[in-house]
Give the backbone structure.
Amino acid sequence: MRRESPSRAHCPLCGGGTVHDFYSKEGVPVTCTSVFADAAQAREVARGSIDLAACDRCGFAFNRSFDPRLGELGARYESSQAASAHFNTYAAATARSWVARHRLEGKTVLEVGCGEGDFLRQLRSAGVGHAIGVDPLAPVPLGEDRLPQDIELMARRFDASLLDLQADALVCRHTLEHVPDVQGFLTLVRQWAARAPARVALFDLPDAESVFAERAFWDIYYEHCNYFTAATVRRAFELAGLRILALGHEFQGQYLRVEAAPDPAPRPPEPMDSTHERTMYRSFAAATDSSLERCESALRALKTASDPLIVWQGGAKTVGFLSALSEPHLIDGAVDVNPQRQGIFLPASGLPVYAPRMLQVLAPRHVILMNPAYQEEVAKTVAALGLRLQLHPVGELLQ
Ligand SMILES: [Zn+2]
C-alpha cells in the first residue's frame, strides 16, 4: 500500500519552484542496504515512492516524494563497504590524499556521517592527530569500547549546536546524497568552516551523471534523495557560499570529490543553464522501458532450466535492480564478500545472500556483476575458488 509522503515542491538546492517529474517507481523498499535474518521479514520491509524531479532553474534531480521518516527507518542497518579490499584501498588513498593536500598531519578532522568510524581510522593511519565522527547512527557506546585513542564518536546529527566544534577540516563521504535539505546542510558546513581560518570541507559522493548517462536504473533507490552531477554539486556549494578548490571524479568515475572553503566574498550566483541536465534526464526516462526489457530478455537468455542465476553483490545495487525488474524471480541468489551480509536476505525480494564459496555448491554458469569497479577483485576470488563461470557486468545486459 502506498504511504502518504510529503512532496517536496521546491528544489532543495536552489529553492526554485518549478520542477518536472521524469522517473517514478512506487512500492520500492525504503532501504537497499539493510539485511534481514529471514526472507519473510525481508519481504515485509516498509515501502516508499520514488518520483525523481528536475529543477527547471538549476537542473538538480531529487526524489520529491522522499519522506525523511522512512529514510531514517531504513538507515538503521549495516551499510559498510569496508569488507571489500578494493573499497578499503580507495578509502585509504582518499585519506592519504586529503591529509597531504590540506596539510592535516597531526591536525584534528571532523567527519560528518561517519557511520561506524571506518574512515576515522583511515584518517588516523594517514597521519591525522585527532578524528571526531558525528553520526546519529554512530555505535556509541559499543563503538567507544573498541575505539583507539584519538578517535571520538558523537551519536548525533550535525546541527547548529556543533558550530563551535574545534577541528581543522570537515570531511563528509557518501552522505550528501541522503540529506533532504541540501542548502540548509551546506550552509551549516560553510558557517562551521568560516569560524576559523583555513578550514576546508572535503566531500565524496556518487556522481549521478554516470547513472543517467549509462541508464543504470539499479542505482536509483530510496535512500538517495539527491542525484548530483558535477555541475549541480558545484551550484549547491557556490549557492551556500562555499568556494570550490577542486572538483573531480574518483573510483572509475563513479564518485565526485569536492574540496571547498568558505568564500570570503560570495558573489551573486551566475545565471544557471540546466539544458544539459534536463536533456540527460529526458533521455534516461525515455529509455527506461526499453532498458528494462533488454535486461530481462538478457537474463532469460542466461538462465537455463537447470541453472541458478546469481548476482555478485548483496547490497544496494542488487536491491535497486530487483526493485525495478518486473521479473525479479529470474535471479536466484546473491553473493557478497562482506561476512555481515552472508546468510541473510535482501529487502523486498527476500533474495538470499551467500558467501562466495557457496558458488562451488550453487554452480552457476553465469554471474551478473553489479559493480564493474570490482571486476578484477571478483575475477581473482572466482579463480581462487577454482570456478569456471562467466562474469557479466550488469551494464552489458542493456546492450
Ligand atoms: Zn534548483
User: Anything to note?
Assistant: The pocket of zinc ion is lined by residues 11, 13-14, 16, 55, 57-58, 60 (CB under 6 Å). Residues 275-302 form the longest helix (28 residues). The first strand starts at residue 19 and ends at 29. The chain is about 30% helix and 20% strand.
